Amino acid sequence: QVQLVESGGGSVQAGGSLRLSCAGPGYIYSRYCMGWFRQAPGKEREGVATIDSSGRTPYADSVKGRFTVSKDSANGTLYLEMNGLKPEDTAMYYCAADFNCVATVPKTQFRWVGQGTQVTVSS
Q1: Cβ atoms 80, 66 nearer than 8 A
Q2: Mean pLDDT across the stretch 63-72?
Q3: Strand, helix or coil at 105?
Q4: Which residues pair with 13 in a beta bridge?
Q5: Distance set, CA 20 to CA 42, 57, 63, 68 (Å)
Q6: Longest Cα pair distance anywhere in the chain, in angstroms?
Q7: Cβ-count burial of 121 within 10 angstroms (0-12 exposed, 13-18 middle, 19+ buried)?
Q8: Phi and psi at residue 89, to the nearest 5°
Q9: What is the structure's pLDDT at 103?
Q10: For residues 21 and 9, is the Cβ–Cβ distance under 8 A?
Q11: Alpha-carbon distance 23 to 85, whole Å?
């Protein structure tokens, strides 16, 4: 069982920034697919970004150029740097892991998922 714990969510105004963090067992960060997805009330789950063991990082078109996913395998932490936030970015954000990524698009279904952290962007 892999436990993932997110932190860093909050409320910001449009144009602001937040950095989400995800802590978990160190070994998964270098071996597995790690990523973030989000879900807003009444909307489908949306893959935001993933990072695989080779460092490939596909992003959702809606966040390209604004969000950056990275990981610190030595310290067992996954990050999502979010800049230029928009009200439509408001959602619960989940950190997740799985054995493999999809090469070209961020996944929405993962084997292990954290409890989520809320991001709210006001206009």
Answers
A1: no
A2: 96
A3: coil
A4: 122
A5: 23, 16, 14, 10
A6: 40
A7: buried
A8: -85, -5
A9: 79
A10: no
A11: 23
